[in-house]
Amino acid sequence: MQKVIQRLNGHLLFSRINHNLPSINTIRLTNTKNDLKEHRARVMARGLPEKKPLPGVKSIILVASGKGGVGKTTTAVNLACAMKVIEPDKEIGLLDADVFGPSVPLMMNITGEPMLNDDNLIEPILNYGVKCMSMGLLVSGENAVVWRGLMVMQALDRLTRHVAWGPLDCLVVDTPPGTGDTHLSLAQNLPIDGALIVTTPQSAALQVTKRGVNMFEKLKVPIIGLVENMSHALCTECGTVNYVFGNETKRTADEMRLEIIESFEVDQNMSECINSGKPAIYALPDSIHAEKYRHLANKVFKYIDDKEKEQVKAT
Ligand SMILES: Nc1ncnc2c1ncn2[C@@H]1O[C@H](COP(=O)(O)OP(=O)(O)OP(=O)(O)O)[C@@H](O)[C@H]1O
Ligand SMILES: [Mg+2]
């Protein structure tokens, strides 16, 4: 495993990650019945990991969905950029927490190996005024990442606590599909202010979305609302609305008592923009999509503001 990691990036940071992992021999040695009992007791006594804020980061918003390919990264990228557009004086960050399939570098048009600063922290890469960090910047392009749970958690720790994020008003976190190690690790270690749940309108997607919502409820992460993506397609000739993927989102949202904050139709221009590293918010600022992302960004700012006010009241 050590060789794999070193070959993947040849970077001191990640050889250090590996040094923290127990060797197979160590695992075998401690794997007797009594040792196991003691180990379990020690882990239970520790309880859940303490949620520690990220230095200099005021708020953290997750963009998530149980389902893959529904537009989480598209939403996270456009949201982060829209937040910067409507509040240029605020510092916005974008963390790509999808360590297996990072797509933020492509969609934000960022490349290059990040530098370490004097405090040994990784400097985020800036584009469109947004500070970005992604495993895609630390591992070369076509290499597949084959990591187990513990290593994913350590990689996330590097991407969160070993990056010079501060000062930031808001860190937007793009998450991978599913309800796995990444979500658990983020929710248990970071003070998440809220999650936006992205879904498409098919029953199959909504069913998985519900699972995602349940997971966040269990992890006590507040849900800001739903973002419906690829809600419908407009005929470019006659303007007819086609519900290509069905129209079930409203019913599911009502069942979960969640607001649909925005609905984005399927749009070829939007797809072309994001896949060429020019988010619609910049490439097509007058489009309906850009307007909707600005609305979404406003909603998120308001949510953060209201939450801060509530916290001040409570103290
Ligand atoms: N409203 C839309 N109209 C047209 N294409 C879209 C729309 N939203 C997203 N796409 C396209 O769908 C594809 C998947 O989007 P994206 O990568 O954001 O999904 P994801 O949920 O992050 O996927 P994954 O689960 O693999 O991380 C991208 O190529 C993107 O350009
Ligand atoms: Mg993605």
UniProtKB/TrEMBL annotation:
One GO CC annotation, please?
A: mitochondrion
Alphabetized UniProt keyword annotations: 4Fe-4S, ATP-binding, Iron, Iron-sulfur, Metal-binding, Nucleotide-binding
- Asked whether the UniProt record includes Iron-sulfur among its keywords, one would answer yes
Alphabetized CDD domains for the sequence: Mrp_NBP35
Does Metal-binding show up as a keyword for this record?
Answer: yes
An annotated GO BP:
mitochondrial respiratory chain complex I assembly
Gene Ontology MF terms: 4 iron, 4 sulfur cluster binding; ATP binding; ATP-dependent FeS chaperone activity; metal ion binding
Q: Which HAMAP family match?
A: Mrp_NBP35 (MF_02040)
Family according to the record: Belongs to the Mrp/NBP35 ATP-binding proteins family.
Q: Which protein is depicted?
A: Iron-sulfur protein NUBPL
What organism is listed for this UniProt entry?
Galleria mellonella
Q: Which gene encodes it?
A: LOC113522432
